[in-house]
Request: fold
Amino acid sequence: MLLTQLAVAGIQTGMLYALTAAGFALIFGATRVFHVAHGATFILAGYAFLEAMQMGAHWAIASLVALTVAVAFGLFMDMLVYRPIQKHEGSFFTVFVASFGAGIAMQALIQFFFGGGFATISLPLTRATELLPGLYIAPVFWVALAVVLLVFAAITLFLERTHAGLGLRALSENPELLRAYGLSARRLSALAFVLGSALAVPGAILTTVTTGIQPADGAHVMLVSLAATVVGGIGSIRGAALAGLVLGLVENLVVSVVDTQWSQAASFVMLFGFILFRPNGLMGRAGAR
Amino acid sequence: MLTRRTVLAGMLASTAFPAALRAATEPYVLGTLFPMTGLLSELGSIYTAATALGLEHVAQDKRLSQPIVLKAQDSQSTPQGGAVGMSKLANVDRAPYVLVGLTGVAKAAEPIATRAKVVMVNGGGVGPDLAGLSPYFWNIIPLANQELPTAFSWMKRNEIRRVALIYLDDPLGNALRKGLQDGLPAIGAALVGEFSAAPSAQQFSAMIAKIRETKPDLVYVASYGTQQTQIFKQLRDNGITQPLMTYSVGGTPSVAALPESEGLLFTSQVADWDAKDPLTRRFVEGWRARHKDNPNTYAQNYYNAVLLYAQLIERLEKEGKPLNGDTLREGLATGTFDLVGGRARFSPSGAIDMPTQLNRVQNGKFEKVS
Reply:
């Protein structure tokens, strides 16, 4: 039963990783901006949800507040940080450093306003009950499962069945051709940031209620997103989501054979394995930019 | 007649006089190396508030010829930050007496302080290896190994036989692990599982699944900071209903504020906020007036550390001795001091001798169990 329990824990962790990584992969895939501040988006959404709940808001309103804050931050980064840099110089490294700096600045601001400590909210949803002998599952597991399925179904439909979704995919393929067809790369880039930032929100809310958050968590979120993007195949949202799930599973299942403190290291061993033996990742294409 | 000798004497006097004057008029420097940012910034706020209260009371007493000024450095909750901060305090601020907290930070800062002959007073770190760290290193807090006997007494009385341990893989966590390994057999109990956590770990559900398999009577947590509260929350969320126990770090406000901490047991030095002695009353009332709550033992320790500095300076002024690391060290080794909690003296290894007690989190407050 231990393995089943570890698998359940792994799926729950993996679902949260999948949502966060998919957001990062969508932004990177469409705009080629290495949005390191995606970690800050996640933390901002978590704190916004928490603050709204503590002010007595209904969870749906609090979720909406978190969504608004995350999307606003994503748009802010796109319009006021990345775009001016890209206009003048546009080097990948300059944009990366700007994003990294913005992430750190945002972490400091959150710490200034909310303190550096751990923040969470206690809900009955997170209390596990014994479903079978030795198998404990909290109601939040089913909530996470439903949210993940719903969000991925919606994002897949959007990307595959709408003009804007097709435009986003085209943006990652050939921005020049996009302009030739009269589509606005700027608007599509903003859309990528809106969707990518919004994808971080469910993971941020679920993390806030299950494990709690702190301002310094942004770095961990970013590491996981990056690992999932590489393992999944750069540019592939499905790949990143699948890789996030696999990373969560590996991180938890490995505890059955190694000491508990090495669980996170196992994920990154897997990352190195992919870089060495399958550099295109699970769903990446050979020769992708 | 103006001779060459007179001119030389005059020049020497003119250079020496301002220095002597400066020495007599310069304020005394108190350095702090607290975690103001990083994982343990919550503790840094408590340490700073207690130090400020102590300085305010010392200033009100007007028993020193010069005021004490505070020079603060942020250790960032990391050993690296501790080393950098101590370099600044010793070499730039020239602080002869520095308050530190956190085991890792204190150990990183200690060689720099010892080289510069700066006295360090620790009121927050409880790693047993902080005892006898250096002739200039003094502990005004009982170390973790001094707390364990109180935990063992309670376990024995409550027939705890199987203990599972979650520990941070660092000097403090490993010291508590060793203390439990050595001490549990003596009360007829055993460590049935030892689970190490990486300092950056935040997800503990897999570890908790393994803990459940060991069927413990009690889970002992040897971590600190935000990670500790995350562990308490996840233990309860993941179906662990057995008693949870930790060391003095359990007495932080964020632990009490967490609903999942209800019933948590933790050891600490004896703290009686209802004691009638004037020192305790002044400290407790001052703290309550500022923070609308009772203090905790960390606040007591850093308040005491400021009183200790003031008492040492007062003695040196009376004896006409200079204030430096060596004279402070001599004073600490030989004196007895009036502090909150009673009259105290230090052992030759630099540890304060204080009794300990077991506490419990009850309705979001701390209460004494035994």
